[in-house]
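User: Second chain of the day. Same drill as before.
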Amino acid sequence: MYDISTRKRALALVAQGRSLNSVSRETGISRAAIRSWQWRLEPLPRMAPADPGPPAEERAYSYLLGLYLGDGCISAHPRSGYYLRIACANAWPGLMEQCREAMTSVRPGIGVYLLRKDGYTMVTSYSRRWPNLFPQHGPGKKHERAISLEGWQRTIVDAYPWEFVRGLIHSDGCRITNWTTRLVDGERKRYEYPRYFFTNLSADIIRLFTDTLDRLGVEWKFANARNVSIARKASVALMDAHVGPKY
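Assistant: Same format as last time:
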């Protein structure tokens, strides 16, 4: 009833993470037909070249790597390929757009879409080769396994350290304004000062963050075992110049 190009188009939409309902509405093909095609031997259309090679844009990759280590995951498609998903709070639409731009810069030609959840959005993209570009992918939670950078990743982070720090802050960090009071000439006055925090359950990821801060000359300290604070005025000024708050 349906030619091969129609079947491939429907399966390609499903491979992008679309629901059967939405694909059925768009194509006019019944959900039962699409579901049956998913389990036949007919291969899905290729969504990426056989060899991804290096990231197409290394500056964007350094930022995307920070986002992935903070709030990202890679999951296998039921038949083939992988989804890269970065969780972004709905309060930060600018962050979602930066994440989308980074994905398309790293892998030109792929589709990137937003999957709305309760209180957050998954910026999502399908490719057969995401695990090649993010070899930290593995079973279980990131904080329950060792995390280290490959040599080629370290070269990119060393070339674009601020992008890496910005990705980590935009995923698992924040810029806040603290305040305190002090007596001045007998009068209690309120003072406000900004600071940055980065929080992660993985000691390895925290170490990647703080090692990069050290190379950049940013002073930091542990607020607790899993929380890094940057509060010195000069260091906050550096962070504001190169990272800034989420928006």
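The first strand starts at residue 72 and ends at 76.

User: Great, on to the next one.
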